[in-house]
Every structure is written in C-alpha cells, then in structure tokens.
Give the backbone structure.
Amino acid sequence: MGDLDPQDWDAFRAQAHALLDASLDKMQTASDGRVWTPIPDDLRARLQSEVPRQPSNPADVLKEIMPYGVGNTHPRFFGWVHGAGAPSGILPEIAAAAMNVNAGGRDHVAPVIERQVIDWCAKLIGFDADASGLIVTGTSMGTIVALKVARDLADESAMKRGVIGGRLVGYCSDQAHSCVKRAFDMLGLGTEALRLVPCNDAFEMDMDALRAMITKDRKRGLEPFCVVGTAGAVNVGAIDDLETLADIARDEDVWFHVDGAFGATAILGELARDRLSGMARADSVAFDFHKWLQVNYEAGCVLFQNEAAHRASFSDRAEYLRGSERGLAGGAFWAVDYGPELSRGFRALKVWSHLMEHGVDKLGRSIDRNIKLAQYLQAAVGAHDQLAPMAPVALNINCFRYVADGVDLDALNEEIVIYLQEAGIAVPSTTRLNGALAIRVNITNHRTQEADLDLLVSEIVKAGDRLRCDFTV
Amino acid sequence: MGDLDPQDWDAFRAQAHALLDASLDKMQTASDGRVWTPIPDDLRARLQSEVPRQPSNPADVLKEIMPYGVGNTHPRFFGWVHGAGAPSGILPEIAAAAMNVNAGGRDHVAPVIERQVIDWCAKLIGFDADASGLIVTGTSMGTIVALKVARDLADESAMKRGVIGGRLVGYCSDQAHSCVKRAFDMLGLGTEALRLVPCNDAFEMDMDALRAMITKDRKRGLEPFCVVGTAGAVNVGAIDDLETLADIARDEDVWFHVDGAFGATAILGELARDRLSGMARADSVAFDFHKWLQVNYEAGCVLFQNEAAHRASFSDRAEYLRGSERGLAGGAFWAVDYGPELSRGFRALKVWSHLMEHGVDKLGRSIDRNIKLAQYLQAAVGAHDQLAPMAPVALNINCFRYVADGVDLDALNEEIVIYLQEAGIAVPSTTRLNGALAIRVNITNHRTQEADLDLLVSEIVKAGDRLRCDFTV
C-alpha cells in the first residue's frame, strides 16, 4: 500500500459511491431550477484558507460546490459558446482516473485510442486516410499548433533561428476568433502580421478584399503564408466561403487553416453540411469536442493533411524519450512528436467513449435541432415590436436587442442580460456588432426546447419594459 | 431531457456504479501483478473501427482496457518521471464531470478554487502574497507561458510586431529538459537562441561558464533576457545552484525562470528543501502536480512574482468576452487573461482536493521517503560488482548499468531494460550520459518499497548474467 492509498478501502469505496450518486443527481436535474447561481458569501469565504498542512476530507465540499458552476448544463444557458455536456461523459472520466496514464507516447492503450479518434475525425471532415492530428485542450491550442506548422513550412529557419517579425503575414476575417491573433503573438509572428479582412453584411469574409490585401502585401515585399477561414464565427455564427478560400489559398500557394471551434462539427448534420464542404480542402482544421459535440470540458482537435509537415514541426525527442522497437518505449504514435505537451492525460478516452455511446448520426441530429431552434428564435424576435435583430442568423446564434425610443439601448440591454443572469432565468451573453451592444443567444445545447426560447423572449421583453425608464436619455 | 441524456436513468446509474467498482478494484490492486502489459492483439484490433454511426455501449470496453495503461500506478514503475496517482483523485474527477464547467473565466466556483491553489503554491515556493499564476496542463506549457512573459518584458514590440530572431538569447544547462528548447521554438525566438551551458561533474550548471557566455553574447551585441535553472534534471535529478543563479540574474538584469517539473515539489519535504530555497527568488517557476505530488494526469502550474507582467502578456479579451461588474460575466480572476487557453476544464479541482485530502506535510514526507529509497538503491548498486553507477544520486534518480568485460554494454543494458519491461517485472527506462547508455531508475512513486528495489537489482543482475553472451564484442 502506498503512502497516499486509502487506509480503509471500504470507507473510501462508500464515499466514492456516495459522491457518484450526488453527481448523478446533479446531472439528472440539469433542466431544473436556476440557470446560474452566484456563490454564497459564506461558501466563498470557506473556500479561502491557509495552506492545508494536515489531511482533511474534501468530499463534503465537492458536493457543496456543485450548484455553483457556470450553468452551462442548463437548457436556458445561451452564453458565449459553451457545450452542455452529457451524463455518460462521467464514465470515461472514472476509467481514466483509475488508469492515470501519461498519454505523451509509448506503447499502451491511450495512443491507440487517440489515433482512432483522430482517424474518425479526419474522415468526417473529409481528409485523406493518411491525415495527421492531435487531441488538444481546445481550439485555442489547436490553432497555435496548426499555425506553427504553417509558419515552419513557410520559413525553414524559423525553428532554429527564430522568426523575422513582420515578414510572414496571414489573413482572417474581422469576425475571426481572438485565438488566431493570440497564435500570431505566441509564435513570434506578431499580431500586426495578422491582417483582418473586412466582412460582407452576412459577417463573412469579403473575398475580393482578401485578394486585394494579399496582392498589396506581396507588392510591399511581404510573404503571405496563411489564410484562416472561420466556420462559425463567435459573434454571429457566420461561415466563411470555404470553397473560395481554398481556391485562393491554392492560387496564392499559402496554407489554408479553418477555425471550426464549434461550426466544424455541424458537418455531422444535414443543415449546414454543404457550407462546410470546403474544410476537406484545408491544410489544417481545429475544432472543439466540448462545444457542440457535448463532450465534457475540455477537449479539442487539430487535423493536418500533411503528416510530414506536422511531425517536422514538433518531433525532436531528447535522449531520455528515445523510442525502441520493443518494450514500453515502443508504440507507433507518440503524441510528443505532434504537439508542445509531453505529459498528457487520457483526454482522448472521453471523446472516444462519447462518439461510441451516441454515434455521430445522433450527434448530427442534435446539432441540426439546435440550428432549427435558432431559426425558431429568429422568427420569435422578428414577430416582436420591441425586439430588433442585429445580424442574420447563419447557424445557431441570434444577436438582437430590446428597442425603445429615447433610451440608451446599449446600457439597457446590458442590464437586461445581467438581470436575467442574476434572476437565474436564463444566461444569454452580450457582444458588440458595428459598435452597438447586442443580446447574444447561442444555442449549442442538447437540452434546449422551444419553451425555453419562448420564456427567454417574454422575459427579455418584460425586463426591457420594466427597466427602460432607468435608461432614458 | 436532452438529446444526449440517458433514457433510463436507473440503468445508467447502475452502469456508472459498476464501472466505479471496477475502477476502484483496479486502484486497490495497484501493487499486484505485472507492471506493464502489452495490449493483446485482439483488443488492439477491436479498438480500430470505422466511424461509429450508431449508438453502442462503450462501458465494457472501458473496463477491458484498464490493464493496458503505462503501468505507472505500480510500485515497480521507474520509467521517465511519472507520478503514480492516488485513488482519492477519482473523487474530484467525478464531481468535475458532473459540473462540466468552463474555467476560462466568469464568476463561479472554479476560478475561486484555481486562485486558491495558485495562492497556496506561491506561498509554498516562497513567493509574495501578490504573486500570479495559472494551472496548466504541465510544465511544458508552463514553460511556454513563463518564457512568453519574459520575452514580452524584454522586447516591448514582440507581441505586436513579432520577434527579431536571434537577438534575445537565453541560457539553461545542457541537462535542462527539452521543453525549454521547445518553448524557444514555439515563441519564435529560435532554438539556437537558447545557449546550453555545460555542467560540472554533478550535472549542475557551471556558473562560471554561464557568466562567460552572457558576457560573450553581450559583446556580440546580443541581448541576454533569461536564465533557466533546473530543479531536478530529468537525466539524473540534479538541482542547479539556484541561489547563485538568482544572483547572476539580478546582476545581469535578466529573467530568472526555474523548471521544477518534479524537483520543485520536494520543497514540501526536508531532505532537498535547502537546495530549493533559491526558487523563492525566481521571476517564474513551473512544475507539475501529476509527478511527485501524485495528482492524476494532467496538471501543472506556472507562478510569477510580477502579476502585471504576467497579465500584460496575455490579457487582450475580445468583445464577446468582455467582463462586467455584476452577473455571470463578473468575477475577479479570468484565466483567459493569464494564458493561451480560453475553454478550460476544472483542472484545479483535483489539485485542490488532493492537497486538502492529504495535506502538504504528508506529501512532503512521501517525497522524502522516495529520496531515501534512491539512496538505498544507490547503496545496493555500489555493493554489486556487476553494477556500476553512471552519475551521482542527487535526488530521486539512479543511473547505473550492468558491466562485464568484452561486451557491448550499451546494447546489453538496453536489452536488459526491454526484458524487464516485457516480462512485467519492472519498468526502468534508459538514457545516455556522456555518450554511454544507462539504466535509469526514477522514484516518484508513493507505492515503492525497499523490497521492490531489491527485486529490481537482483533481476537486472540475473538478466545481465544470462544475456551477456549475446552481446560479446
């Protein structure tokens, strides 16, 4: 028995089963009660303590904190782009905790399952069978990994001699996620080397503008090396014209990356599949499992058409990580050759288990149902005099706001959102579109029903009617 | 009920409890049987399948794969630097799966607990109360985050205008972990900008050589910006002279980072604490919870003395991530302001729970017991004519090998290690020291006992005696 093993296994076993029951209770009642509940002051105070010198039993606190999460498991959580998770996700977490593997490499079951998940994803996106990939924490990390490969292919000396800032330039729409800019910063390219291409009225990248910007940069002696298409822009859900982007990338001989954080997974359904076909022509695609696929936080994926380029950018093992033909240091797929992390948990297991449990057809139908719910909400907004749409509904996101004359609409709508959150009724978030604050309702939630949206609309209008007098200008 | 919720909750509940029991059985028998077991061919074949279109039940496979992990839960696992995990780690994984929070920011319980863990760690390392930090996947990511902050402080224009490769240069010992080199690559600095300082006979950085290299680089017009000290080198466990490194960093006005992947946590014990005191003077420290602290994979930490510099390097939120004074978009600590990831699981919970459950004093005693076991093994190696030590034992790692005349010792010792792994007896790994292959025995395992080391030594000698004739030169 080890120093940290339970002294009384029966008691430990009983405690684990009790916590499991409390956790299952929490998941079984996901659709009930308040959406978000602020942490009670006394709990917050008790969570702040001195360094624990002596042992104590945290199990009661683990139960006590459960109601005070983000609220994203509730059907009326519409904030940002959060997945709701699925109860069955608890099974692989239990198995993975018992195994406690390091999935960085070597010959054991974790790399086999990770490779299997990558192969499935590559096939679903439309990549060839010899595609490469990696399970990552999420699209932010996937984007960094993808653009590093693009950087190192465009500039052979970057890895050894460093980047010459400002020479390599890339392009994304002004609606692209901030993780693209962050990747340019992280990789030493500089955020100014990322050109923000303006959008059309549908918040999709303007392809003529992109072509003109590339031409202009080339004339200035700069080296365009990548274009980043967005499949599901975070503000409004817009999908760039990926087929045209693929054409431009081919014509200009630059890397084509797709940020499909949530949108890419809509390829499993019918309603958005056609607009996502261009992903198959990308050099790399990054997306999350924990958003629209409802895998528990956190898990994402980055895929590459060119395994050799992917591997070349990350494989440089030290002596103590040398592989061998046989023994535990064997194994064909070492994740350390494909990304920045060496010690890695068995993140792939929950993705594998989720895809097996539900099958991709059901997951696609669930995504399609969310798209239809967004259209349902769009109709409800359109039917209401006090509500004005702020953007077209491209996928699963509605941006609109309560309107009235003689009122500071930005401040009023911000207050409406805070009121709904604090009252526990619903959690939309906000964004700014063309300078104006919008209530933003994102539906990536397999629990949301029409009635939840009816309630949301009526509560927004009621709150607006009541609060508007406080915001008269 | 959501599309992905169980249709029969009673059946799902029974399945979850059955899997929990199987997982507890696996953990309760961690010290029994083989260390590493290769995946049976038929299981490997069944794990390779077409994309799952239709639902199926993965619970049986989750049970079936459990024996085929890395083996690091077993007391005779000595490979690389793996933690063994602790059974109590399953509790926070269950609770976290039920909550399914995104810990990227906002006002809920996860950021409160993450901040608490960071505060405890900062205090334990000896940082001031206003220190900053982030829970990360591991030291590889922590090192990237730390050196990005150092980069951006040294070169104000790096974030916007990119790196000028080769100008900023840094230093670590030639025994430092490859993640430092990887960070230089990732951040656009170039791996050649990382100077490898030679070591003394104890595999610690040669401080005179460091000073001379910094002086030489300055004379060449380059800009030294950081020194990286190693607290527990991966080959032999050496700890650099951190106090002198802190002096040099102060004198040279460069950032002082400590890679303490496993070694840093020995500060909780008595035996290595004095040699780790210099960490308190570092600008940043990165270390893992999943190694010597036995938290389940994966979790690491990066700490900063200078919160403002840490924040400046990562805080640039987009409109859709704007915070507010009240509502769910409130909250003081948004992890997205301190690292590259936006969607983040509740990784901090298992660290918090582990530290509460065991208390840091017990964790320190367990680490000290490993150090004593390494000394015990050192004595056993010294007492054996057929075994020769290859490096001093600084902490918890023994490097030695079987010796005999007229034999290819590199090939023989490699074969001994593979034999021990394949036979399921023990899992040491190998490395090369001064060009020669060594059997490397790392003890970061709270289950290892003296008898395990006795068995290891006798099996190595037996294997060497039997196999040596195959390797005659």
Notes: The radius of gyration of chain B is 24 Å.
